[in-house]
């Protein structure tokens, strides 16, 4: 009002100035006329003044001056009025925006959620207040969610404290959680560690007539699959034979969605909880709440099991204590009887002591003789059981006599040798006068394997022995000597016929051995260089220098060395170069270096082949690089996506040079199609399949520009099967594609989505919505026993600022982090919610850096593709 009053005052002041200026000009004009009349001496009358312009025509211009000045000042006055009113309108609009922003901020500060007024985002302060509102709304949502989760945890924690019986505990948990999360049914399964079976211990609101299965093994059904993967399962496609909901109001009705959550603590599975819902979409907060609660329940179940096990052990301990007390009483009574018996025995012992001493002396003499004997004497009864073994066994076998008894004598030989010994003893029983000999290996107590020779005699008829007598001798050393002699002869033969160059030299360069192949490299016969020093032999210079260098290197550092040398070899009239891989092997006598064995292997052909392989590899790599240029030229350019969607990004990282993942875009008259496609495999196979998918997508959309997202996916599915001949009997390939496909309408605030094993993430005003893809791939072998459903088209209304994200599985399946786990969908979801206010470029930078940091030193497992779009 004050501004309006100031404007009116300014207008009145300017109007007065206009009138005064016009009057002043008029007065000046009259004064000019009066001055002219006075100069002419005429009387000052009105008729004279009016007739004056007729006698002086130039006075007409002067008479018009007041009118001209008035008109000019009037135009300026009106322009000034318009300028003042325009400024006043702008000030009034600014005041109104300030008042609207102040009112918006006041309502926001009082804890309410005001609706944004029209034109709010057209000024910076309004934008800032709107962003503050979104952040406050997001924070309040998080606080409500945390409060809801905490309240649910308190309810379940109270149940966990009040109940100790697993059955009652699981039922009370189901009862509380079904009400709290608005589920219509629930089931609780405990994991039996000893059998690996999941046993149903409680159900809530189940129709018992249709609920048949009470146990599941790992991987069996949805319950077993959840236990095997140790991750939650959320399904909206319910199997046809799944349990139904029975109610007096609803009748028999199949649930629209189910959720199975594993109960895990310390990486050990304790059980599974399963819930059914009538709604086809379970809030993500419910899933988060059950995942957090699952660890608390699992920890309580583990503690409860440990307590029950401890209680059982205590009960067993009490029972055993009682039995021990009863046994102690019996022992005390037996001790009294034994005391009286002991007195009688002491008298008998005094009489036998003298006789035993004499027998002991004789026994000691025999024991000493047998202990230091060079063979082991064993006696077996008619059932082939060891009844006696001589003390020398401890020196020869390393075992005591006691350690050989009770059937352990056969534990240290092979099964075949045991059968041979038993057959030999059986033959002796049939022919008592015969003497049998058998040789076999034996494992000593120190782990050494020795060889034995045993002579077997039948003394069952001898009353002093009454057994089968075995005299066993260690023949390991004699066998070793024979073996060394055979090996030496065999090595000599192998060396003589070897195609490798073999020399043996001592430290001073004296040649002790040379095989015939030496002549091919030196032109000198082996017998002409034996027992001669290197300095006395006229070897080719390169060969002589090689041997001298080897002796010097081994003398300096006596370990095996490998050298590659090129030697000129005369082949007839021509001089050819041969490449040798030479091994210098030091040979010791004790700890002192005695000789050096030189073995040279011709690797000329191998080097030639290696060179050819390198050339072939380079050609293959050049072909792959050229294929990458071809694939890059065919795939849609990233700036095309940027032109269609000003706010967008594409994070594209092939594992190899060429990729099986590819982004695809097609523009029709009414819409843009955009997809992230993941073909089976990566590298060359994946790239070939990606070209098939790219050309088929372009052809289908070009011929049918009005297809919905689901129809386009279904047509591509059929065309891929036809192209790969998977629609015939006995197909040779099961390859296919996963895909997240979006259709954005140009003239409507609407989009469509269809997914083949891939989801779509929508971030809108701080809230995240996940649209799951169909459990079905593009291409592949069609199911035989189940009718295949077409792809689902999800239609969504778009609001300004909505952000859409979709990606291939290479992005979330990448291993990394401190424990080498997958990047995972949960980490991706949390990143979107925690940074809901990020712009698309900020999200691009964040996910690129976070993914690289997560991967660390791990190798990239698969091609990866992440696309972000803001409408």
Give a summary of the structure in a few sentences.
By secondary structure, the protein is α+β, with helices and mostly antiparallel strands.
Describe this structure in words.
By secondary structure, the chain is an alpha+beta fold. A six-stranded antiparallel β-sheet has the order 3-2-1-8-7-4. The radius of gyration is 52 Å and the shape is elongated.
**Rounded radius of gyration (Å):** 52 Å
Strand order of the largest sheet: 3-2-1-8-7-4
Q: What does the largest sheet look like?
A: 6 strands, antiparallel
Which range best describes the helical content: under 10%, 10-25%, 25-40%, 40-55%, 55-70% or over 70%?
A: 40-55%
Are there runs of 5+ residues with pLDDT below 50, and where? 207-212
The helix-and-strand class reads alpha+beta
Strand fraction band?
15-25%
Backbone shape: elongated
Alpha-carbon distance between the termini? 43 Å
What is the multimeric organization of the chains shown? Answer: single chain
What is the mean predicted local confidence, pLDDT? 81
What is the number of helices?
20
The overall strand count is 31
């Amino acid at each position: 009002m004050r501004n309006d009053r100031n404007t009116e005052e300014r207008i009145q002041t300017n109007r007065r100035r206009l009138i005064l200026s016009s009057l002043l000009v008029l007065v000046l004009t009259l004064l000019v006329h009066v001055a002219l009349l006075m100069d002419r001496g005429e009387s000052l009358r009105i008729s004279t003044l009016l007739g004056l312009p007729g006698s002086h025509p130039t006075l007409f211009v002067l008479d018009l001056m007041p009118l001209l000045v008035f008109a000019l000042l009037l135009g300026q006055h009106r322009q000034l009025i318009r300028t003042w009113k325009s400024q006043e309108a702008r000030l009034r609009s600014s005041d109104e925006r300030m008042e609207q922003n102040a009112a918006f901020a006041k309502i926001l500060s009082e804890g309410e959620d005001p609706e944004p007024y029209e034109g709010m985002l057209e000024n910076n302060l309004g934008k800032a207040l709107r962003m503050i509102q979104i952040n406050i709304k997001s924070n309040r949502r998080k606080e409500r969610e945390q409060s809801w989760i905490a309240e649910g945890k308190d309810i379940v924690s109270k149940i966990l404290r009040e109940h100790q019986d697993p059955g009652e505990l699981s039922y009370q948990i189901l009862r509380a959680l079904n009400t709290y999360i608005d589920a219509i049914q629930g089931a609780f399964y405990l994991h039996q560690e000893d059998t690996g079976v999941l046993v149903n211990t409680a159900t809530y609101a189940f129709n018992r007539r249709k609920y048949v299965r009470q146990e599941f093994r790992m991987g069996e059904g949805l319950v077993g699959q959840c236990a095997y993967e140790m991750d939650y399962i959320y399904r909206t496609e319910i199997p046809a034979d799944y349990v139904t909901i029975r109610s007096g109001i609803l009748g028999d009705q199949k649930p629209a969605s189910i959720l199975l959550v594993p109960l895990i603590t310390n990486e050990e599975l304790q059980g599974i909880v399963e819930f059914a819902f009538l709604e086809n979409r379970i809030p993500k907060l419910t899933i988060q709440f059950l995942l957090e609660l699952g660890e608390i329940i699992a920890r309580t179940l583990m503690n409860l099991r440990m307590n029950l096990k401890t209680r059982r052990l205590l009960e067993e301990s009490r029972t055993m204590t009682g039995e021990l007390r009863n046994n102690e009483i019996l022992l005390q009574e037996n001790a009294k009887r034994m005391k009286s018996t002991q007195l009688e025995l002491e008298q008998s012992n005094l009489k036998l002591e003298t006789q035993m001493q004499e027998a002991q002396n004789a026994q000691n003499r025999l024991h000493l003789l047998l202990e230091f004997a060079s063979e082991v004497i064993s006696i077996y009864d008619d059932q082939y059981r060891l009844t006696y073994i001589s003390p020398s066994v401890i020196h020869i076998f390393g075992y005591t006599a006691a350690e050989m008894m009770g059937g352990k004598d056969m534990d240290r030989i092979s099964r075949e040798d045991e059968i041979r010994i038993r057959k030999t003893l059986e033959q002796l029983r049939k022919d008592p006068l015969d003497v049998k000999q058998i040789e076999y290996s034996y494992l000593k107590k120190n782990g050494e394997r020795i060889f034995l020779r045993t002579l077997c005699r039948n003394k069952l008829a001898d009353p002093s022995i009454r057994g089968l007598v075995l005299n066993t001798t260690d023949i390991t050393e004699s066998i070793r000597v024979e073996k060394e002699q055979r090996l030496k002869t065999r090595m000599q033969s192998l060396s003589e016929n070897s195609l490798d160059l073999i020399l043996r030299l001592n430290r001073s360069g004296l040649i002790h051995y040379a095989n015939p192949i030496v002549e091919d490299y030196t032109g000198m016969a082996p017998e002409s260089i034996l027992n001669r020093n290197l300095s006395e032999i006229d070897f080719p210079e390169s060969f002589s220098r090689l041997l001298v260098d080897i002796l010097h290197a081994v003398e300096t550092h006596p370990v095996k060395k490998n050298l590659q040398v090129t030697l000129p070899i005369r082949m007839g009239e021509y001089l050819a170069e041969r490449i040798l891989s030479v091994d210098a092997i030091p040979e010791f006598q004790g700890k002192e270096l005695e000789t050096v064995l030189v073995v040279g292997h011709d690797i000329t052909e191998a080097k030639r082949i290696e060179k050819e392989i390198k050339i072939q590899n380079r050609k293959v790599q050049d072909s792959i690089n050229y294929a990458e240029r071809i694939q890059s030229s065919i795939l849609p350019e990233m700036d095309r996506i940027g032109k269609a969607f000003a706010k967008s990004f594409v994070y594209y990282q092939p594992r190899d040079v060429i990729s099986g993942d590819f982004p695809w875009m097609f523009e029709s008259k009414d819409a843009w199609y955009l997809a992230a496609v993941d073909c089976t495999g990566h590298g060359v196979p994946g790239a070939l399949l990606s070209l098939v998918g790219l050309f088929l997508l372009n052809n289908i959309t070009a011929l049918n520009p009005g297809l919905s997202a689901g129809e386009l996916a279904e047509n591509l599915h059929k065309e891929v099967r036809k192209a790969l001949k998977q629609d015939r009997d006995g197909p040779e390939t099961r390859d296919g594609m996963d895909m997240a496909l979006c259709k954005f309408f140009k003239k409507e605030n609407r989009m469509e989505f269809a997914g083949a094993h891939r989801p779509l993430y929508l971030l809108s005003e701080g809230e995240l919505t996940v649209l799951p893809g169909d459990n079905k791939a593009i291409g592949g072998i069609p199911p035989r026993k189940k009718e295949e459903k077409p792809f689902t088209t999800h239609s969504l209304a778009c609001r300004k600022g909505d952000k859409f994200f979709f990606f291939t599985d290479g992005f979330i399946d990448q291993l990394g982090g401190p424990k080498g786990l997958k990047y995972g969908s949960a980490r991706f979801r949390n990143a979107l919610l925690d940074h809901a206010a990020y712009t698309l470029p900020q999200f691009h930078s964040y996910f690129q850096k976070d993914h690289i940091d997560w991967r660390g030193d791990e190798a990239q497992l698969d091609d990866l593709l992440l696309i972000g779009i803001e409408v």
